[in-house]
């Protein structure tokens, strides 16, 4: 840990010595950035600091004090009281009751209002002059209150090499650890890219980082102002977040295939993007290569005259491990139970037409999420969430975001107080 922390501080200190502020640009290839090949510099260091102020209701969890079912996390949505862009929650304190590790990471504040350093992130980009190779690494520090939440972590969240072998074609080959290719929400993983503060109720299944190989190809159809893209990956773990599924090694010896096919229409005042995603391979939270995970999703984005509409729907199935739930040997989450989920989200936002040298943008947004999930042999749990928020951008280097999350237990879970009022100040350098 001390060595990793020293490396992070070294990267950060070098980054503050840079004079240029670099904008982070969405990339359909799944990197969350676009390399600026026109720049003379072949090495660039950028990043952001995300500072939050949070207040959760109830005790900061989705667990009812009167719920005696076991495992406790099979009968409630522990991910609902999210407080930041990482999807971490105010608390996962069960009061000593048994869970099967179907839990998010926690900041450990319960219902107490608190300031947080959500993430301190440093990116390193390197592109050798004259070569079709690009290298990227992202190191992140998350300070946490370890006595009641998760421990402080330093993570090498992404580390990959990209090769673009054809000069006149948008073809890229990736090898290493990278963003998911499934759906669209992974494009907003980082706090400086996400319009609001928190991810959706289905983000846990689609926004994880994969270790393996992927290929991206896009070809333009200029006659009809369109483009078609293909994004495919073979990884150890699939597309789920690391809190649920191990990433760093394949436990089954087989890889998970995932991908998305997309279409985009780019007119002067109207942009439309459609996509269909799929996933198939063994579950990487157990050791049997025959226990499969399967998923399908569809996504839509429309932007016109300051309005933006985005949404995604998902259907996912986990087969149980042999003998109805084989002990995994991972030490946590010992039972690989069968699991089914469907869900989705839709978000409408509007960017006001006011802009000055200081005030570079004001965006209002609302989102609706819904999720229905069932572990084999247990009652289906249905939940939904209404989210309202606003984002103010200042000088193109500071984003101030406010958000209120109103969670509801529709069926299968006790009603609890688990709403969240959260905010975030993201400084990009």
Number of strands: 16
CATH class: Mainly Beta
Q: Can you tell me the CATH superfamily?
A: Porin
Secondary-structure content class: mainly beta
- CATH fold-level assignment: Porin
Q: Choose one word for the global shape.
A: globular
Strand arrangement within the widest β-sheet reads 1-2-3-4-5-6-7-8-9-10-11-12-13-14-15-16
Entry summary:
The chain is mainly beta and about 425 residues long. The chain is built from two helices and 16 strands.
Fold and architecture overview:
This protein is mainly beta and 429 residues long. It has one domain (48-118, 148-428): Beta Barrel (Porin), CATH 2.40.160.10. It is built from 2 helices and 16 strands. The two termini are 25 Å apart.
Describe this protein with a few key phrases.
429 residues; mainly beta; Porin; 16-stranded antiparallel β-barrel; 2 helices; 4% helix; 46% strand; globular; disordered N terminus
Set out the fold topology.
Elements: H1 2-16, E1 43-56, E2 114-126, E3 133-142, E4 153-163, E5 170-179, H2 203-206, E6 209-221, E7 226-235, E8 256-266, E9 270-282, E10 292-304, E11 307-318, E12 339-351, E13 359-375, E14 381-394, E15 398-411, E16 420-428
Antiparallel strand pairs: 1-2, 1-16, 2-3, 3-4, 4-5, 5-6, 6-7, 7-8, 8-9, 9-10, 10-11, 11-12, 12-13, 13-14, 14-15, 15-16
């Amino acid at each position: 840990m001390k060595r990793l922390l020293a490396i992070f501080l070294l990267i950060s200190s070098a980054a503050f010595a840079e004079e240029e502020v670099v904008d982070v640009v969405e990339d359909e290839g799944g990197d969350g950035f676009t390399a600026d090949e026109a720049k003379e510099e072949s090495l660039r260091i950028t990043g952001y600091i995300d500072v939050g102020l949070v207040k959760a209701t109830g005790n900061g969890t989705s667990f009812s004090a009167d719920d005696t079912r076991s495992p406790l996390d099979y009968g409630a949505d522990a991910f609902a009281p999210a407080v930041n862009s990482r999807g971490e929650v105010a608390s996962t304190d069960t009061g000593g009751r048994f869970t099967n590790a179907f839990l998010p990471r926690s900041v450990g504040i319960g219902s107490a209002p608190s300031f947080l350093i959500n993430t301190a992130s440093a990116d390193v980009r390197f592109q050798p002059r004259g070569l079709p190779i690009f290298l990227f690494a992202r190191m992140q520090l998350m300070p946490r209150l370890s006595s009641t939440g998760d421990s402080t972590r330093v993570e090498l969240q992404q580390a990959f090499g990209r090769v673009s072998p054809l000069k006149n074609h948008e073809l890229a080959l990736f090898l290493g650890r990278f963003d998911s290719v499934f759906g669209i929400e992974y494009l907003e993983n980082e706090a400086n890219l996400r319009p609001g503060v928190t991810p959706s109720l289905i983000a846990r299944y689609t926004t994880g980082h994969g270790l393996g190989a992927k290929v991206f190809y896009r070809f333009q159809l200029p006659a009809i102002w369109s483009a078609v893209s293909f994004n495919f990956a073979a990884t150890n773990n699939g597309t789920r977040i690391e809190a649920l599924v191990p990433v760093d090694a394949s436990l089954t010896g087989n890889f998970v295939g995932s991908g998305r096919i997309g279409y985009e229409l780019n007119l002067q005042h109207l942009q439309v993007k459609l996509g269909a995603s799929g996933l198939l391979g063994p579950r990487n939270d157990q050791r049997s290569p025959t226990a499969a995970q399967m998923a399908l999703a569809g996504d839509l984005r429309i932007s016109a005259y300051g309005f933006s509409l985005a949404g995604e729907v998902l259907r996912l199935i986990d087969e149980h491990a042999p003998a109805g739930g084989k002990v995994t040997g991972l030490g946590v989450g010992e039972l690989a139970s069968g699991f089914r989920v469907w869900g989705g989200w839709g978000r409408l936002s509007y960017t006001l037409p006011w802009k000055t040298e200081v005030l570079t943008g004001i965006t209002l947004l609302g989102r609706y999420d819904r999720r229905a999930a069932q572990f084999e042999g247990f009652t289906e749990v249905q939940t939904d969430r209404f989210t309202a928020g606003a984002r103010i951008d200042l000088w193109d280097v500071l984003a101030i975001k406010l958000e209120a999350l109103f969670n509801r237990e529709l069926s299968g879970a006790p009603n609890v107080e688990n709403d969240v009022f959260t905010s975030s100040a993201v400084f990009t350098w």
